[in-house]
Structure formats: C-alpha cells, structure tokens
Sequence to fold (320 residues):
Amino acid sequence: MTPKFRSSEITPEAEYWSRRRFLKAAGVAAGALALSACAPGLGQPATTGAPASTSAPAASTSQPGKDELGDAETSYDSVTSYNNYYEFSQSKDNVAVLAKNFKTSPWMVEVGGLVNNPKTYDLDDLRKKFPAEERIYRMRCVEAWSMVIPWDGFPLAKLLKEADPTSAAKYVRFEALLDPKEMPGQQSPYFNWPYVEGLRLDEAQNDLTLLATGLYGKDLPPQNGAPLRLVVPWKYGFKSIKAIVKIDLVADMPVSLWMNASPTEYGFYANVNPTVDHPRWSQATEERIGENARHKTLMFNGYGDQVASLYQGMDLRANF
Ligand SMILES: Nc1nc2c(c(=O)[nH]1)N[C@H]1C(S)=C(S)[C@@H](COP(=O)(O)O)O[C@H]1N2
Ligand SMILES: [Mo]
Fold:
C-alpha cells in the first residue's frame, strides 16, 4: 500500500515548479540559472555528432533538425542531461549520473493479459522484428517545460496487432522495472512502485504512439528510459513510461503511479491542454528547454489533427 501523504510533502512534478517560483519571487533569476546549469546545450544547435534527422513522422513537411511545425530539435546534451526519472532521483539534473551504470541488457518484455497471443520478448528480438523509424516529437512535461526530441522506435500498434487483443480488452497497462537495488529512488516510500501507466486501447493503437528504443539515431541512454520506453506526444510527459518490462491488455482503467500519488493533480488522460490548469500552476505556456522565449502550449501538444477525434464528446476538464 502507498502511504497517503499531503500534497505539500510530495516532491514530484510540482515542488520543482513552486521552488522556481519562490526563487523568482525572491528576485533571483533562478529559472534561467538552474536551467543553464543543467542544460549545457542552451541556445546551441546539437553539436554532439549525432546524425541529423532526415525523415519526418506523420507529416512529411519537416526540415532536417526541425519538427513539422518548424520547431528546432532540443540539443542532444539537454535531452540526455535534464530528465525526470523518479526511480533514480527526484531532481532532474543528476539522473544521467545516477543511471549511468544501469544494466539494460539482457532485457525481457512480457506482453499478456487479454490477448490471444501472449509472449515474452527478448528486447533484441523485438527490435529486429519491428525496425525503428524516426519520429520527431514535441515532449511537454506537466511541469510546463518542453523539448523537441528525434526518437527512434516503432508504433505500439504493431506489437498490439501481433498480441491480438480479445474483445474484452479496453486498456493497455504498462509496468516499469522494479529493482530497488539498481534504482535507488525506489527506496522512497512516497510512491507505489513500480511505475505504472496506462492508455485506452484506441489511444495505444494510434499511429503517433511509439515504443522508443533510441534518440538522435543512437540507442536510448539509461536516463531516457533504456532499453524501451513509451512516447505519447499529445499527453504530458509522465505518461511516457520508461524501462518497460510488462505490457498487459486489461478491461479496467489502470491506476498509474501518479494517479495514486496525487489524484487531484494527475489524471488518467493527461492530454496536453492549455485551458485546463494544474491545481498549482498555469498550463497556458511552457519553457522550451534551450530557448529563451516561452512557447504557447498547444491543444493536444499540436497533434489535434491526429488525436482530437479520440475525445469527441468527452469533458476534458473532468477527464484531465
Ligand atoms: N519509469 C519512469 N518513466 C517516466 C518517469 C519516471 O519517473 N519513471 N518520468 C516521466 C516524466 S514526468 C517525464 S517528463 C518524462 C521525461 O522523459 P525524458 O527524461 O526522456 O525527457 O519521462 C516520464 N517517464
Ligand atoms: Mo514530466
């Protein structure tokens, strides 16, 4: 059981922001300083020798190094050194160091539940079976910062098709690795480990929904969720679960780690929505890491053409 605790005691997704606000109010340029300290690529193009992105995802209008809206990719250094990964740390700037020696091979992924074809995959076999393609996606954290990341991966829909959900399957439940020896953050009693996330089946089957194995043309580094993580670009970043070991088709809506930790702040749907604020801060704008100006937050993070129909007739304020 998860111990219940007051939201003032939570360090998640929230404390970070209120701390920045506090420091700003105190007259310190805290936000900019803190970010430049942990985002070395600030304002610079990617210089890490990573291959330039050449192909576009859903839209074919992208220029190399940009998403389909013309937004520049966030530098490789920022993407790999500013991370949310509570299994390792509640601070974003030391995850990369703490996760450095995390063992990501061999790795097994168990696909089961309400399917006709349950199977446990070795990750290497899975990668051979479903070759990676590049998708340049915006990633919007619920904490009101964002990045543009060129992922390599394959649509979850392909794996689901092979698993062959039964008619009783309505949701997909994802589970991350539980290993408190290797993941020191799992010694925190404030969270109901392992990290769990979920999608409605039709969301999971949408072509945008990616199982990522790499970024910038290289294997995922541990801090970004190696060897296998979800990417759901129209939802807040916490839906994009890292270090997946289990994917189950289920009948009932899964309860995620964040819903469990703070149900009034983090809902199941978590669709990016500039008109529905977090109880403690506005979601109207976001800080694009590596840039100075704030961006306006876009409905469904700018992917409405592909996903708005999934929510027709739903009250997106109630289903936050
Ligand atoms: N297993 C796991 N997955 C996770 C998290 C986490 O703490 N544990 N954090 C989430 C949050 S809040 C965000 S914003 C993204 C960050 O992904 P990135 O570090 O690759 O940018 O990962 C998400 N996936
Ligand atoms: Mo996040």
The chain is about 20% helix and 20% strand.
